[in-house]
């Protein structure tokens, strides 16, 4: 239909790969194994948060506000009367 779509998951991955503050906070939370030379150590992070909801909540507190801010900035740049935010956990994050 041609309307602009903001992909929250893609933005979250970009933040975890490129945002120095987010990278620093993730390393502080999970330790030096959180990142490898090739980037975020997704397997390690997944294993850490799998049964530890407190860690997952802490990770979400790092990433979700940055994604929301990126969406709000992106939204103001759009000229379309309708925009979409594709997010798997839109309601869970309170972004609805």
Characterization of this structure:
The chain has 96 residues and is mostly helical. The chain has helices at residues 8-18, 20-30, 42-49, 53-77, and strands spanning 5-7, 35-36, 39-40, 84-86. The chain has a two-stranded parallel ribbon with strand order 1-4. A two-stranded antiparallel sheet has the order 2-3. α2 (20-30) runs antiparallel to α4 (53-77). The protein is elongated, with a radius of gyration of 15 Å. The two termini are 22 Å apart.
List SSEs in N-to-C order: EHHEEHHE
Ranges where pLDDT stays below 50 over 5 or more residues in a row are none
> Biggest sheet, open or closed, and with what strands and sense?
2 strands, parallel
Q: Report the C-alpha radius of gyration, rounded.
A: 15 Å
Number of helices: 4
What's the assembly state of these chains?
single chain
What's the shape?
Answer: elongated
Note the beta-strand portion. 5-15%
By DSSP, the count of extended strands is 4
What class would the helix/strand composition place it in?
Answer: mainly alpha
Q: Give the overall average pLDDT.
A: 91
């Amino acid at each position: 239909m041609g309307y602009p779509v903001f992909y929250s998951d893609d933005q979250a991955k970009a933040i975890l790969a490129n945002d120095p503050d987010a990278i620093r906070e993730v390393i502080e939370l999970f330790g030096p194994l959180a990142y490898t030379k090739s980037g975020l150590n997704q397997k390690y992070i997944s294993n850490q948060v799998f049964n530890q909801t407190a860690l997952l909540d802490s990770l979400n507190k790092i990433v979700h506000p940055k994604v929301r801010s990126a969406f709000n900035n992106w939204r103001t740049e759009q000229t379309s009367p309708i925009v979409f935010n594709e997010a798997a956990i839109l309601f869970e994050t309170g972004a609805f």
